[in-house]
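user: Please supply your own:

assistant:
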Amino acid sequence: MSEVVIIDSGGANLASLQFALERLGARAAVSGDAARIAEAPRVILPGVGSARDAMERLRALGLAERLPRLEQPVLGICLGMQLLYRLSAEGSTPCLGILPGTVERLASQPGRPVPHMGWNQLELAVHDPLLEGVETGDYVYFVHSYAAPVSQAALATTRYGVEVTSVVRHGNFWGTQFHPERSGRTGAAILANFLRVS
């Protein structure tokens, strides 16, 4: 049985993520303890709310410097994915710096309000074990106002007026801009794949 520690980043719907992992047979615990997180076989960094508040919480927990040094599989979800980047334009907030680039606010357009909220499709760019069994055109569930630029690290993109990164990878760090725990069969497949990656 896989063990996952979900970082207690504050404000996130941690219970639904924990239940989604447990339905897949994982032992999932929520913790803000830096030592326990460092020793966990797998780590998930969730997040909702503002980048500044989330980074302040990570610093208070002693995780802002420790997280980029983790060597086990790490998955950032929604704001947690955005925190993997160098900077968020939301308050010009320095983030974890695992990925280069700046997360920018989505521009509101006719018929495309911000936040981007609801189901949208994936466009796969690179084959990766995290996306095993996932196909271009599969729908996942988004709730976000900021988005990461498309780069060589993007495993999948999504179009919402502009093309944005929806799945990213850098070494042992993965990120999904959408919420896999709310994304039905496709989200469950991604979480199950995360429990197997090494």
User: Anything to note?
Assistant: The longest helix spans residues 184-194. The two ends are 14 Å apart (CA to CA).
